[in-house]
Write a structure and sequence with these properties.
The complex is a heterotrimer of chains A (about 425), B (about 325) and C (about 290). Chain A contains 15 helices and 15 strands. Chain A has about 425 residues and is α/β, with parallel strands linked by helices. Chain A folds into 2 domains: about 200 residues, Rossmann fold (3-Layer(aba) Sandwich), CATH 3.40.50; about 180 residues, Response regulator (Rossmann fold). Chain A has a 7-stranded mixed β-sheet with strand order 7-6-8-9-10-14-15, sandwiched between helices. In chain A, a hairpin with an 8-residue loop joins strand 14 and strand 15. In chain C, a hairpin with a 2-residue loop joins strand 1 and strand 2. Chain C has a two-stranded antiparallel ribbon with strand order 1-2. Chain C starts with a helix and ends in an 11-residue tail after the last helix. Chain C has one domain. Chain C is mainly alpha-helical and about 290 residues long. The chains are: A alpha/beta (about 425), B mainly alpha (about 325), C mainly alpha (about 290).
Chain lengths: ~425, ~325, ~290
C-alpha cells in the first residue's frame, strides 16, 4: 500500500509537478504548519501502564501549549507510535522520521529499546529526546557522544537518592541487608549502587539475601519466604510494574516487613497499586521527578494533577513529568533559536539551543546539560498512610537536584560513586 | 494416526508440486522486483525490506522443516537469535567486521547448536516436536537474559556495521541499509533460495517429503528417518542464523526479545500467511507480514487484535495462504481461457 | 524446619495455580488433540474478570468473606467464553494440528488487546481480599489463609475432575472420545457436543485459576504470554494429555522453583528448563505420557 502511494508521489515529483506536493509552500503558510512530534511509548505489556501515563501527559501538554500559541506560533501535532521490541521500535522510529517526517521524536522507556533506537537516531540524524531508559552499561558503549540524542537523567539517580535517604533515616539500624530487584541491568545496577553507597558512608552491613525475580513474575511467595528466612533488617527493592505491588502484598501477608526497614526507589511508578492495606509506613519511597502531592507544587503541577486525577481517577507519576519535560525542552530550544535567528530555526540550531534552557516542568525546574543529559529535580521521602488516598503519600519530602545524584559529564558512574562527595 | 490421517492430509501443511519449476520462477520474479524496488519505493519502504530479506531466508529454512518435512518448530526464533548474537559478538566484541566471516561463523555456530538440539527434538513429531522446540527456544532466551556479563542481558549487544566484501561504505546507516546492504542481503536471498530449491528437489528433499507423508513407509524403503530429519533441522537452523545476522545488522542490536517464543509464533504466521505448501509461499508471507504489520500498527493502537484476527481468519478460510489463493486464481484463469 | 515449610508452602501454592491451567491444557489436548496456546489468555481473562466481579459483589453489599466463592463463580462464568471460541476452532478440527496451534496463537494476540480495551494498561489488583481470611500460623510459619484455601480448592478441583472422568457416564464418554473419536461416533455419541463441553471445561480451569490467583497477585497485560511458558513446562514434564502428569508436573515446577529461589536465586528460571530437558532426554514422553511417534 505504502509502496504504491509513495511510488506515485515520486512519479509525480519526477514529472515536474513537485510544486504540488506538500512541503513547498509560501513562508507565510509555513508558519501555521503544525510542528509534528513523534511519540514512541509502550502501550501494552508490562510497560503499557507507564507509557500510557506519559502519553496522557504529552497530550495534555500539547493541548495546553497549543492554546498558548504552540511552539513559536506553530501548533503541535502528535504522531503516536507504540514502543515494543527493539527491532519493531526501530522500525517505528524510522517510520516517524522517514515517512511521517516528524520534526522531533520523543519517548522511550525501556533501556534495551533505547539502546537500539538511540544509535539509529544518530545515524538518521534525527532529533530524539528520551523520556527514560538510561542505565549505565551499554550507554557508555553505544552512545559515547551524541549529536542528535537527548537522554533522560540516569536511571540510577533514584537508587542513589534512596540509598542516601536510607542512611539519613536509618543509619545504625542497617546491619543485615537483603535485596530483591528485577533481573535486568536496571535492578542489578541499583542494588550494586546501594551497597557501594552504604560502604562509602561507613555502614558495615552484611548481605543476607539477593533475589532476582524475572520481570513479570506474579507469584513471589517463594521469594518472600526466602527473604524472610534470611532475617534481614533492611530490604532494598527497585522492583517495578505489577511486580512491586505483588511483592509488597505477599510480603506483608507473610509478615516479612515486621521490624524491617525498606527502601523502594521506584515505588512512585506504581503508586496507584500500592494500597495502604499492605504498605508499611516509613518506607523510603521514591517518586523520581514528580511527586503528585508535593506541598510546594507549582501552579502548573497543580493544574496537571487536578486534571489528571479528575479524568483518570488515579495519580500521575514521573513518566508524566518526563513526557512534559521533553516537549517543554524542545519548545524552549526552538523558541530561543527562533528569537536569535528571526526565522524558523534549522535542526542544528535547535539542537544547539536546547541545552541550558531552564524549563519549568511538571515536577519542578530542569534543563539539559551541554552533553545532552537531563538534569531534573528528584523527590523521595518517608511514606505515611495518613492521607485521604488509598495509597501512601510522603510524610517528609526530600528533594535533590540531579547534579547531586548524577555523575558529571564524562565520568564513569562507578568511579563517581567511589569518589564523589555525597550530599548526606 | 489411524483413520484420521487421510482426512488430515487434505490440508496438511504442504504438498509442494514438484514436477514444475514454478517455485523457482516465482522466487526469481520476487528477486527481480526487489532489485528494481529502489528505483521507485521510498527510503522507508526500503528499510523495511532489509528485515524482510532476513525473514525470507529464515523462512526458506523454516519451511524445509514445516512444509517439506512436516515438523512445526515453535522455537525457530532461537536460530535467528544465534545469528544475531554471533554478528554482535564478532563485530562489537572481537572486532571482526567482515560480514562474510560473520556469516560463516553464524553458520558454524548454528550448526553446532542445532546438532544436539535437533538430535533431541527430531525423535518427536507433530505437536511434541513443536513443544520441545519451544522449550529449547525459551531456554536459550533465559540464558541470554541471565548471563548478562556475556550477552548484555536485557540490553542486548550492539552490532557494528560490517564490511561487505572487505569494503566499508560511506554515508549514514540508512544509505548503507538501502544501498549496499540491501543488494547484499537480496543477493544472499537469491543464492540461498536457489540452493534451497536444489535441496528440496534432490533425493534428500524427496526423502523428507516421503517422511512427511509416511515415516514408517519411508523407513521401510531405506530412508534413515532420524538422520534425514536431523539434517533438515540443521539446514533450517543455518538458514535461520543467516537471516538473523541480516536482521541484526538492520536493527543494529542483538537482543533477547528476538528469541521470545512469540517471535517464533510470528515466523509460523508468516509461513502460513504466504502458504507453506509452495516453495516460494513463505517468502511471500514474509513480505506480506512485514507490510501488514507496518500498516496495521500505523492504523490502530489495537494492532495485536487485528493481526490475531487476520491469523484466525487465514487459518480458517485460506489455509494455503497467499500462494494457495494465487494458485487457485491462476488455475481458474487457465481453465477459463 | 521453618524454612523448609516456607519453601514447601510457597512451592505448593504456585503449583496449585499452575495445575489448574495445565489441567485445562491437558484436558483439551487429551480429547481434541489441540495444544491451546491461548490457555494463558484464559488465565488472564479469569484474573481480570475476577476483579470486576468482586467489585460488583462489593457494590451489591455482599460481605467480603464471600470473596472466594465469588471468584470461583466468576471464573466459571467467564469460562463460558470457551463456547464461542470452540465454535471457531470446530471449523478446523480435521486440519493438521499445526493450524490448530496457530489459530490459538491468533486468539492469544487478540486477547491481549481485548484486556487492554476493557481493563486498560494499568495492572489491576484486588487488595483487601487477600487477608480477609486472616493468616494461619503453625510451626513458626506465617502464611495467609487464602493461600491454603487456594491449595485446597485446587486439590478439590483435581479430585472432582478425576472422579468426573473416572466414575461418571459423561466422563467415560469423554475418555472414550479421547481414545478413539471414530469409534464413539459410530456408537452414537455426538462428538461435537463432547468437544464443546470439554473445551469449555478446559477453559474454565484456566479462568478459575486466574480468578483464584488475583487476590494474592495482580492482573497485568503480560501475564498471559508469561504463563504459557510455565504451563508448557508443566505439561512437557508431566506428559502431554495426562491429568496425573499435570499434577506431578505442576508440583515439580512449583517446588523446584521454590527450592532454587531459596538455595540458588540466580537459577530460578533456568532450573525449570533444566528439569524439562532432563525429563525429555531420560523419559521422552514425560513422566506420565504415553510413548510418542
Amino acid at each position: 500500500m505504502n509502496i504504491t502511494r509513495r511510488a506515485l508521489m515520486r512519479g509525480i515529483g519526477v514529472a515536474g509537478l513537485a510544486a504540488a506536493t506538500p512541503g513547498i509552500f509560501a513562508p507565510a503558510i509555513a508558519q501555521a504548519k503544525p510542528v509534528r512530534i513523534g511519540i514512541l511509548a509502550p502501550r501494552s505489556g508490562a510497560m503499557g501502564t507507564v507509557g500510557e501515563c506519559g502519553i496522557r501527559a504529552v497530550q495534555w501538554a500539547a493541548e495546553r501549549m497549543n492554546k498558548d500559541g504552540g511552539i513559536a506560533g506553530r501548533p503541535i501535532e502528535l504522531v503516536i507510535e507504540e514502543e515494543t521490541s527493539p527491532k519493531d521500535t526501530i522500525e517505528r522510529f524510522r517510520r516517524l522520521v522517514l515517512q511521517e517526517k516528524v520534526d522531533c521524536v520523543q519517548g522511550l522507556i525501556s533501556t534495551g529499546v533505547s539502546l537500539g533506537v538511540a544509535p539509529t537516531a544518530e545515524e538518521e540524524q534525527a532529533l530524539l529526546i528520551m523520556w527514560d531508559g538510561t542505565t549505565q552499561d551499554g550507554v557508555k558503549e553505544a552512545m559515547p557522544k551524541s549529536n542528535y540524542v537527548f537522554r533522560s537523567t540516569d536511571n540510577e539517580c533514584e537508587a542513589v537518592m534512596a540509598s542516601l535517604l536510607a542512611i539519613k533515616y536509618f543509619k545504625g539500624k542497617i546491619k543485615r541487608i537483603a535485596g530483591i530487584n528485577p533481573d535486568y541491568s536496571y535492578g542489578r545496577n541499583n542494588w550494586e549502587a546501594f551497597q557501594q553507597i552504604l560502604r562509602r558512608a561507613g555502614v558495615e552491613a552484611e548481605v543476607v539475601a539477593e533475589q532476582w525475580p524475572k520481570v513479570g513474575t506474579m507469584d513471589l511467595t517463594s521469594h518472600v519466604a526466602a527473604l524472610k528466612a534470611a532475617k534481614p533488617d533492611f530490604i532494598f527493592s527497585s522492583m517495578l510494574f505489577a511486580d512491586l505491588p505483588v511483592f509488597m502484598k505477599q510480603g506483608s501477608a507473610a509478615g516479612l516487613f515486621e521490624g524491617v526497614n525498606i527502601a523502594l526507589p521506584a515505588a512512585g511508578w506504581q503508586i496507584n497499586q500500592l494500597k495502604k492495606e499492605f504498605m508499611p509506613e516509613n518506607v523510603v519511597f521514591g517518586h523520581n521527578t514528580l511527586y503528585f502531592a508535593l506541598p510546594t507544587a507549582s501552579p502548573l503541577q497543580k493544574a496537571f494533577v487536578d486534571d489528571y486525577m479528575g479524568r483518570y481517577k488515579e495519580a500521575p507519576h514521573w513518566e508524566a513529568d518526563r513526557a512534559y519535560f521533553a516537549l517543554a525542552a524542545y519548545k524552549a530550544g526552538v523558541e530561543a533559536a527562533n528569537k536569535a535567528t528571526g526565522r524558523w530555526p534549522k535542526l542544528d540550531e535547535i539542537i544547539a539551543a536546547i541545552p541550558e534552557q531552564k524549563v519549568q516542568s511538571l515536577g519542578g525546574p530542569g534543563q539539559f546539560r551541554k552533553d545532552k543529559i537531563a538534569e531534573q529535580t528528584f523527590y523521595q521521602g518517608l511514606s505515611t498512610n495518613k492521607n485521604t488516598y488509598d495509597f501512601p503519600t510522603l510524610s517528609t519530602v526530600d528533594s535533590f537536584t540531579a547534579d547531586q545524584l548524577q555523575k558529571p559529564p564524562g565520568v564513569d558512574f562507578w568511579d563517581w560513586i567511589k569518589t564523589s562527595k555525597l550530599p548526606v | 494416526m489411524r483413520i484420521e490421517t487421510s482426512v488430515r492430509a487434505v490440508a496438511s501443511p504442504a504438498a509442494p508440486p514438484l514436477s514444475r519449476p514454478k517455485g523457482l520462477w516465482a522466487l526469481l520474479v520476487i528477486v527481480v522486483a526487489m532489485a528494481a524496488l529502489p528505483l521507485i519505493a521510498s527510503t522507508y519502504t526500503l528499510t523495511l525490506m532489509v528485515p524482510f530479506f532476513g525473514f525470507a531466508i529464515a523462512l526458506l529454512g523454516f519451511n524445509l522443516l514445516f512444509g517439506y518435512t512436516g515438523l512445526l518448530s515453535f522455537g525457530h526464533a532461537m536460530f535467528l537469535g544465534v545469528g544475531a548474537y554471533a554478528t554482535a559478538v564478532l563485530t562489537s566484541k572481537l572486532g571482526v567486521r567482515s560480514f562474510e566471516l560473520v556469516l560463516l561463523t553464524a553458520i558454524a555456530v548454528s550448526a553446532l547448536i542445532a546438532l544436539p538440539v535437533g538430535y533431541l527434538c527430531v525423535r518427536y513429531t507433530r505437536i511434541f516436536f513443536g513443544m520441545l522446540t519451544l522449550a529449547f527456544g525459551m531456554l536459550f532466551h533465559s540464558i541470554l537474559f541471565k548471563f548478562y556479563g556475556l550477552t548484555g542481558g536485557d540490553q542486548g549487544m550492539r552490532v557494528v556495521r560490517p564490511l561487505l566484501f572487505g569494503m566499508d561504505s560511506a554515508g549514514g546507516k540508512t544509505a548503507f541499509l538501502t544501498g549496499p546492504f540491501y543488494y547484499y542481503a537480496l543477493g544472499l536471498l537469491a543464492v540461498l533460495g536457489f540452493v534451497m530449491w536444489r535441496i528440496v528437489r534432490s533425493p534428500f528433499g524427496l526423502h523428507l517429503q516421503a517422511i512427511r507423508e509416511n515415516a514408517q513407509k519411508a523407513s521401510y524403503l531405506g530412508v534413515q528417518v532420524s538422520r534425514t530429519r536431523l539434517a533438515a533441522f540443521v539446514i533450517s537452523a543455518i538458514y535461520g542464523a543467516v537471516g538473523g545476522a541480516i536482521l541484526a545488522v538492520s536493527i543494529g542490536l542483538a537482543d533477547p526479545e528476538m528469541v521470545y517464543w512469540t517471535q517464533s509464533g510470528n515466523l509460523v504466521f508468516m509461513a502460513v500467511l504466504g502458504g507453506s505448501g509452495s516453495f516460494v509461499g513463505p517468502v511471500i508471507g514474509g513480505l506480506a507480514f512485514v507490510l501488514l504489520h507496518d500498516s496495521v500498527m500505523a492504523a490502530t493502537q489495537y494492532w495485536r487484535f487485528v493481526m490475531g484476527a487476520i491469523l484466525v481468519l487465514l487459518v480458517i478460510f485460506f489455509p494455503r495462504g497467499i500462494a494457495g489463493i494465487a494458485g487457485d486464481v491462476v488455475a481458474r484463469f487457465r481453465k477459463g481461457s | 524446619m521453618t524454612v523448609f515449610l516456607d519453601v514447601l508452602l510457597g512451592g505448593v501454592f504456585h503449583a496449585a495455580i499452575l495445575f489448574l491451567v495445565a489441567a485445562g491444557l491437558q484436558l483439551v489436548f487429551g480429547v481434541q488433540k489441540i495444544v491451546n496456546l491461548a490457555c494463558g489468555s484464559f488465565y488472564a481473562l479469569g484474573a481480570y474478570f475476577g476483579i470486576t466481579a468482586v467489585g460488583f459483589a462489593a457494590q451489591l453489599g455482599l460481605p467480603s468473606i464471600l470473596v472466594l466463592p465469588v471468584l470461583i463463580l466468576a471464573g466459571l462464568a467467564i469460562g463460558l467464553v470457551g463456547l464461542p471460541v470452540e465454535r471457531v476452532l470446530r471449523t478446523i478440527y480435521n486440519r493438521d494440528e499445526s493450524y490448530q496451534l496457530l489459530i490459538t496463537f491468533g486468539f492469544l494476540l487478540m486477547f491481549q488487546d481485548v484486556f487492554r480495551f476493557f481493563w486498560g494498561a494499568t495492572p489491576r489488583t484486588l487488595d483487601n481480599a487477600y487477608l480477609v481470611y486472616g493468616t494461619a500460623e503453625f510451626l513458626g510459619v506465617q502464611v495467609p489463609t487464602y493461600n491454603l484455601l487456594v491449595i485446597a480448592a485446587s486439590i478439590a478441583i483435581a479430585l472432582g475432575l478425576g472422579l468426573f472422568l473416572q466414575r461418571t457416564r459423561m466422563g467415560r464418554i469423554i475418555r472414550a472420545t479421547a481414545e478413539n473419536r471414530n469409534m464413539t461416533e459410530a456408537m452414537g455419541v455426538d462428538s461435537n457436543r463432547i468437544f464443546a463441553a470439554v473445551f469449555t471445561v478446559g477453559c474454565m480451569l484456566g479462568t478459575v485459576g486466574g480468578a483464584l490467583v488475583v487476590p494474592a497477585s495482580a492482573s497485568s497485560l503480560d501475564m498471559a504470554v508469561e504463563l504459557v511458558v510455565e504451563a508448557f513446562a508443566v505439561v512437557v514434564i508431566g506428559g502431554l494429555g495426562s491429568m496425573r502428569g499435570a499434577l506431578a508436573g505442576a508440583l515439580i515446577v512449583g517446588l523446584i522453583r521454590a527450592a532454587a529461589i531459596m538455595v540458588l536465586p540466580e537459577a530460578e528460571i533456568l532450573s525449570i528448563y533444566v528439569v524439562v530437558i532432563a525429563v525429555l532426554i531420560l523419559r521422552p514422553a514425560g513422566l506420565f505420557g504415553r510413548a510418542v511417534a
